[in-house]
Amino acid sequence: MTRRVIELLLWVAGAAVWGWAAERPAWVFFGALGGALAWGVFDGLRARRLMRWLGKGTANESPRLPGLWGDLVDRTRKLIKKLDKKAQGAEARLEDFLAAIQASPNGVVLLDSAGRIEWANLTAANQLGFDPQRDLGQYVRNLVRHPAFVAYLNAGDFDREIQIDGPGPKASQPTKILIQVHPYGKKRKLLLSRDVTAVQLAETMRRDFVANVSHEIRTPLTVLSGFVETMQSLSLDEEERQRYLGLMSQQAQRMQTLVSDLLTLSRLEGSPAPGTGEWIDSDELLQHVLQEARGLTQTIATPPHEIEAEPGRAFWVSGAKTELISAMSNLLSNAVRYTPGGGHIRAGWRLNSDGSGEFFVTDTGPGIAAEHLPRLTERFYRVDRSRSRETGGTGLGLAIVKHVAQRHGGRVDVHSELGQGSTFTISLPASRVRRQAT
Length: 438
Ligand code: ADP
What we know:
This protein folds into four domains: about 1-95, no CATH class; about 105-195, Beta-Lactamase, CATH 3.30.450.20; about 200-270, Helix Hairpins; about 280-435, Heat Shock Protein 90. The chain is about 55% helix and about 15% strand. It has twelve helices and 13 strands. Helix 9 (about 280-300) packs parallel to helix 10 (about 320-340). It is elongated and about 160 Å long. Adenosine-5'-diphosphate binds near residues 368, 384 and 388. Adenosine-5'-diphosphate binds near residues 338, 395 and 397.
């Protein structure tokens, strides 16, 4: 400050001296006044440079100014730098925060007080079917036109969540979405969306499964209780009594088989996949299931089927022996049950060129129409319902086979044509197959 006063005085004194040198007393006064004005203009120019620099809003390219103006420039530059750093920190934090919300598996949309989209993550855009960039500023009710959603927004009761259909038709888009709005700040809203397609599907499957099991159990139970009532109310002779008891035992056996298959399925679903520790001779497995199948055909088919083993070199497969036997015998028992008596059944293991191995069963039975093939391994799916029931089928056999194959890293394939017989195959990956015992 002192420097500025001295500077002003120097300008005034310089101009007064000029007036005095001119030997005109009045000029001394006007000279001093002119000096003060010139200094004012000169100082104003410095102030203008400072204002211009401030107008740019950057700490760089600061003007070099002396005295008070120089101090002002220095201090302002430091302040700008400090604010810049703070703003950069805040921006980085905001970016981290938005990146975290982007990564969320749930949809997040910020709405302003009028219900316009201020920001949305990609998940929300995909689930609700809008563009996260282009549709910013649009009214959300114009983009998500589901009547339940519009009614929900209009009602303003956001204590509950609502479920709406997804936008479709892309496979990546969910079909069922749960939405809840949470008001915050000054009439703003946070909209959260969640894909519940899988949950819904699981729930539908669970309901269907319970309905199917109940239906399967109710049928033999109704027959059984009918016989019990008859036996209680009628006096039967010994021959009739034995016949009724035989039929009752058949129904009880049917329920037992169903429960046993259900337990097998739930064990397969609930236990970890078998390791590759136990190696089993493929021929040992084959002989075991062939023997069972020959026993079965003797009891249910007239004339019995011709069941033969495919000739070939045995090898070793790894997995859970009981599971593999159960899957293989399910395929063979199906071949026996669905092929008319006297038919031909062939089964065996073979090695593929890529090192994988497969077990197959071929029959000369009725074959299966193409439209049924994709659904055969679904629980309780039957092509020939009455034949399945007649021969004690539960509708769970192929579901068990599929589970066993998948738990061993393999799969089940069916080749069949109506009237041409069927071939069922369980393939195991190369990691579960060895040519030698070592
Ligand atoms: P099920 O206990 O009814 O046999 P599965 O799951 O084993 O149940 O089989 C599903 C359906 O596939 C059967 O009901 C039957 O209609 C059909 N199927 C299975 N194996 C054969 C076969 N070898 N030949 C003809 N149809 C078959």
